[in-house]
Write a structure and sequence with these properties.
Length: 741
């Protein structure tokens, strides 16, 4: 018997696999990637077909040396990193390095780490899939070009330490765009009327007013609600049409990466990063008694909902033994993956249905057990019969007012006996008969307000990224982690709020790199990577098509991007002792400091101590008097931008934020018919400029873009300024013309 080397990614996986293979196998972990692009430069020759410069990752030299020594002593080498693009790239880099010592190199992969699957993979090895390698290499080069070309520009123009990314910046844009929608949303008041009723059984239930005079009712204010209550006084409530129907509810398919992250966020309050870390532990193997260690779930980075026939057969066997036959469908269900799914793996499922959550309580941590439980339950439920729900809808007439009530009763639980995506509460109705007169117990008016679009949570952001085709299963968690780490977003009550920095960076990137920040372009690039993996696209051509326009945009941005650093510099009376120029207050990640305004010619800096008494240069008179001491009011530059301040400071300390100033008239009349108001410039709570009618709240007209006095030739509304063009402010009009026209 020969000696064999098996290389995996992690020590946990190597420990599990070592149990399945004999003493002739040496299992060694590479600890992830061994080779990558250099950290201190782009490392891609854009002039030579995007040739990458690969180097051994710092700290990995020792591991590579050990692997080479083992390779030299082995008869065969089996490369067994994860079965995805990253794993294939690791295999390729390892093969290039180890082939210098031994040419007998094979690729093995497994969707689950169990004895039978691992031994089967070793018995039938394959070769490295170069199409997958090319897809990974293309993604790596794309991300490196975008990140290493744009990030320095942000550091130069905004603040040091900032970063941009092909996927992260688009994800951030989704959050920022949603925030703009929320800020632009106009809250409207509305009212409802609910009747508490009882029939012959005296069981109470509630019905809501739906229609009046056969038209959908819309109650705008309290007066409208009171008018309806007055009308209903003394009216009889008669049961009208009763509709009963049976509804079938199908189980959800087994988890894929995105749905697991969403459900773990909603049910378990796990972050996407935490979910993937725990899932990795379950996949690589855990000590579970006599069978230890054992891989408990299949590979967790997947966008496919397919399941092997063997796994389905085992699920049916478990269900037949533990539940009655009525819970088993006549045939195993099959689920259809979305079009963009790579279908390289199965869905996420337990490696054995007989390994129940209850049986693993003694071996798993609380978090591991919780995640395993929802994976186990979701998979078994996906193989079960549909649930049957009786739905009853009752119409109740009171004069010309129509009330409705709906009740649902679970007739047959089906898959819901094991797993439900959301809590399903039975809403039982008493036994009612058509034409029955009901007893009115109480009429209750209710005040409500329309709700704007909700902010993203981790679950809804992952769902949006998946639906829009941004990134792939392996990228969701790190993408979210990066935008949090960079302080582009804050998380409050599990919701994402873009920071001022996040909004500013997004605005600059959208303005200067519209293609890179375009959601559809990012999605199409993911599809292009899939085509490279399938051998249908050439990776060098894909990079070339991207880089030409990107290079032009980068050059233009270097000249035209707003220099936020300069805009926010505070000029002082302090003189640089090296060149005689004024010193300015600058902001770094570690705080404020004094730097020479002659930078980069003069790089002199000084520490800035609090209370040093630096005098700020007064640049902008306002023509307005201070309301407290009557001295001239001026505009000064502060840490967070411009603000109004008294020129008599520090004797008079009056100041106010420009954001709070709402007196900036535009001279443009409000376009709402009958309104005599004028549009004024305002700032939202987040500091975003918008324009609204000064007759608010009586008139709620508002636009984000700067209004003009010109009228739309199509609908007569006002035109607003867009980038290099004028557009109609009316929703649905669509008129647009070049500004020069």
């Amino acid at each position: 018997m020969g000696k064999f080397l098996v290389v995996v990614e992690s020590p946990a996986k190597s420990k599990t696999i070592a149990k399945y293979l004999g003493s002739n196998f040496t299992i060694k972990a590479s600890m992830g990637h061994i080779i990558d692009l250099p950290k201190n430069k782009v490392g891609v020759d854009t002039e030579d077909n995007f040739k990458p410069e690969y180097v051994v990752i710092s700290g990995k030299q020792k591991i590579l040396k050990e692997l080479k020594a083992l390779a030299k002593q082995s008869d065969k080498i089996y490369l067994a990193p994860d079965p995805d693009r990253e794993g294939e790239a690791i295999c390729w880099h390892l093969s290039n390095e180890l082939s210098r010592e031994n040419n007998n190199i094979y690729r093995v992969s497994f969707n689950e780490i169990t004895k039978d699957v691992v031994r089967e993979a070793i018995a039938h090895p394959s070769s490295i899939d170069l199409n997958k390698v090319n897809a990974q290499q293309t993604r790596r080069i794309l991300d490196r070009i975008v990140g290493y070309k744009i990030s320095p520009l942000l550091s130069k123009k905004v603040r040091s330490g900032l970063s941009a990314g092909r996927v992260q910046s688009v994800a951030l844009r989704l959050i920022c765009d949603r925030e703009k929608e929320i800020q632009a949303f106009v809250v409207e008041e509305y009212w409802s009327v609910t009747a508490k009723l009882a029939g012959s059984t005296n069981e109470e239930f509630e019905a809501k007013l739906e229609k009046r005079d056969s038209k959908k009712v819309k109650i705008e204010n309290e007066a409208g609600a009171k008018e309806i209550l007055s009308y209903l006084d003394g009216k009889k409530f008669i049961v009208g049409k009763i509709t009963r129907r049976e509804r079938k509810k199908s189980p959800a398919p087994p988890f894929i990466t995105s749905t697991l992250q969403q459900e773990a966020s909603s049910k378990l309050r796990f972050s996407a990063k935490q979910t993937m870390q725990i899932a990795q532990q379950l996949y690589e193997g855990q000590e579970v008694g006599e069978d230890s260690p054992e891989g408990l779930i299949t590979y967790m980075r997947t966008d496919s909902v397919k399941v092997s026939a063997q796994a389905q057969a085992e699920a049916r066997d478990w269900l037949a033994k533990n539940l009655s036959k009525e819970f088993l469908p006549s045939q195993s269900p099959h689920y259809k993956s979305k079009k963009s799914a790579q279908e390289a793996h199965e869905a996420i499922r337990p490696t054995s249905c007989y390994r129940t959550p209850e049986s693993l309580k003694a071996y798993l941590t609380s978090s591991q057990l919780k995640l395993y439980k929802i994976i186990w339950e979701r998979f078994l439920a996906s193989q079960m019969e549909k649930a049957l729900i009786d739905v009853t809808e009752v119409e109740i007439q009171a004069g010309d007012c129509l009330f409705k009530v709906k009740g649902e009763v679970i007739k047959f639980a089906g898959f819901m006996k094991i797993y439900q995506e959301e809590s399903q509460k039975e809403n039982l109705l008493p036994l009612l008969k058509e034409a029955e007169e009901l007893r009115l117990i109480k009429l209750e008016p209710g005040q409500h307000f329309t709700q704007g679009p909700p902010r993203y949570t981790e679950a809804t952001l992952v769902k949006a990224l998946e639906e829009k085709g941004i990134g792939r299963p392996s990228t969701y968690a790190p993408t979210i982690s990066v935008i949090e780490t960079r302080k582009y977003v804050d998380k409050k009550e599990r919701k994402f709020y873009p920071t001022e920095l996040g909004m500013m960076v997004t605005e600059l990137l959208v303005e200067n790199f519209p293609k890179v920040l375009d959601v559809s372009f990012t999605a199409s690039m993911e599809e292009e990577l899939d085509r490279i993996e399938n051998g249908k696209s050439d990776w060098i051509k894909v990079l070339g098509d991207f880089y030409g326009p990107f290079e032009q945009a980068l050059e233009a941005a270097s000249k035209n991007m707003r220099d936020i650093k300069k805009e926010q510099q505070i000029i002082t009376d302090e003189v640089c002792e090296l060149c005689g120029e004024k010193m300015v207050v600058r902001l770094s990640r570690t705080g404020k400091f004094l730097g020479c305004s002659g930078f980069p010619k003069c790089k002199n800096t000084k520490p800035l101590e609090e209370g040093e008494g630096i005098k700020i240069k007064e640049e902008k008179p306002t023509g307005e008097a201070c309301p407290e001491c009557k001295k001239p009011l001026i505009i000064r530059q502060g840490r967070f931008g411009e603000f109004f301040s008294c020129s008599g400071y520090p004797e008079c300390k009056y100041s106010r934020s420009i954001k709070d100033d709402i007196s900036c008239a535009t001279g443009v009349s409000c376009p709402v018919e009958g309104c005599q108001g004028e549009l004024v410039k305002k700032r939202s709570r987040k500091g975003k400029v918008f324009y609204s009618c000064n007759k608010y709240p009586n008139c709620k007209f508002a636009v984000w873009d700067e209004p003009t006095k010109e009228k739309c030739p199509d609908c007569g509304s006002i035109l607003v300024k867009k980038r290099n063009s004028l557009a109609c402010s009316a929703k649905g009009c669509g008129f647009k013309q070049d500004e020069a026209a």
